[in-house]
Amino acid sequence: MLFSIVKKKNLFYLEGECLRCGQCCKKLILLNKGKPIKNLRIFKKISKNKDYYQLFTPLKETASDGALYFSCKNLTSENRCTSYENRPPICMRYPSREMIEKGGELPFSCGFKIIPKENFAKILKEEEKNF
User: Fold this and answer.
1) Centroid of chain to Cα 40
2) 100 and 7 in contact (C-beta within 8 Å)?
3) Which partner for 36 in 67, 83, 96, 127 could form a disulfide, CB atoms 3.0-4.6 Å apart?
4) Tens-digit pLDDT profile for residues 38-50
């Protein structure tokens, strides 16, 4: 819970670099109008207008909030992108602040890390005042 507060209140920064492991391409959340896509029918409708959404395949697993997970069709078995130079904006910006603030997670093996700007104890104390 505390870490989600850090993310939602923008009390973090991102640090690190891409290790080219491909894990971020295997389980991602796509947004529509700033909100995670939770409905397959809506995804199909959006895909007709946003060509790069056609690069993603919905997975059966969903996030705890009901958001659909997707995998990229351009990822090879060696975890390399077949279209790296022409990858869509979502890939170029990964990991984005918006993704983290909306509840997105970094893969365990990711070279990027979410670092709180403030001490957890201080944030917790401030949050306790709100209850």
Assistant:
1) 18
2) yes
3) 67
4) 999 999 999 998 8
Mean pLDDT of the chain: 83
SS3 letters for the chain?
A: CHHHHHHHCCCEEEEECCCCCCHHHCCECCEECCEECCCHHHHHHHHHHCHHHHHEEEEEEECCCCCEEEEECCECCCCCECCHHHCCHHHHCCCCHHHHHCCCCCCCCCCEEEEECCCHHHHHHHHHHCC
Beta-carbon contacts of 70 under 8 Å, excluding residues fewer than 6 positions away, are: 27, 28, 29, 30, 56, 57, 58, 59
Nearest to residue 58, comparing CAs of 79, 34, 102, 28? Answer: 28
The answer to whether residues 131 and 13 touch, using CB atoms and an 8 Å cutoff, is: no
What ranges do the domains of the chain cover? 1-17+111-131, 19-94
- Which pLDDT does position 119 carry in this prediction? 64
- pTM of the complete model: 0.74
